[in-house]
Amino acid sequence: MSGVPYTFGNATTSIPLSQLDVNFATPATLGNTTVGLGNTVTTIGNLTLANPTITGSIPQITVYTSGSGTYTTPTGARYLYVKMVGGGGGGAGGGSGTVGGTGGNTTVGSSFLTCTGGAGGTPNGNGRQSVAGTATIGSGATGIALSGSQGNGGVGYGITGYSEGQSGGTSPFGGAGAGQNTNNTPGGDAAANTGSGGGGGSSQVTTQGSGGGGASGGYIEAYITSPSSTYSYAVGAGGSAGTAGNSYAGGSGGSGVIFITAFF
Q1: What sign does the dihedral 182-183-187-191 (CA atoms) show?
Q2: What is the pLDDT of residues 39-54, one digit of tens each?
Q3: Same domain, 43 and 99
Q4: Total domains, the chain
Q5: How far apart, in whole angstroms, are the C-alpha atoms of residue 261 and residue 249?
Q6: 42 and 76 part of one domain
Q7: Helices (H) and strands (E) in the chain, counts
Q8: Do 237 and 255 touch, CB atoms closer than 8 A?
Q9: In this structure, are 45 and 119 located in the same domain?
Q10: What is the average pLDDT value for the chain, to the nearest integer?
């Protein structure tokens, strides 16, 4: 056997145990790493593999669409990839309607990754855009943290007897609630688990304006390269729709969502 001091392929007499001991104590070299018999190594450098077949676990995807709880990092996961958005604000009611509700915050690890919810729209055509949600990434993760989109401000009343409700802010997942611009109608609801804002309700009176749209929640895409064993999580609810008052109600905001992909 090449690489050891003693060979026994043609031996015709008994083999001294001392020579076997010497052979067994002779280490093997793989690349630039020396490996002794019975030892374990986890890193080998300067080694070329010709046409290797490498097997491993496929990524494991976990999706949270509501509520709160604990995420457990799968055994053997090398890093995590997280996409998440806060809840969208509700659209305001038209005319004498009320302000839309603010969306809830979406978090991973309490304050580790945080997407705040978008603010609700304001009523009566004051033109003020709703305040977008924000996003923050804590130490130990790397990625992008984007503020949401503002909802369009309501418009003043018109001589035709109605004014158009305004659309909600759109998150990267789309699905914002539409404002209505042809009839006396309520604002559209944002799609669930998009974090987008609800649409504002139109006004049916000539003395008060329409409702503004709700803003979308903050958005994060982040990598966690040294994951902890567990993380708490919470998914922000969508903001409630502003009530109708003397006109038409707004639309509800879209709830948040969390995607966690574990790579092995």
Answers
A1: negative
A2: 888 888 888 888 887 7
A3: no
A4: 2
A5: 38
A6: no
A7: 1, 12
A8: yes
A9: no
A10: 90
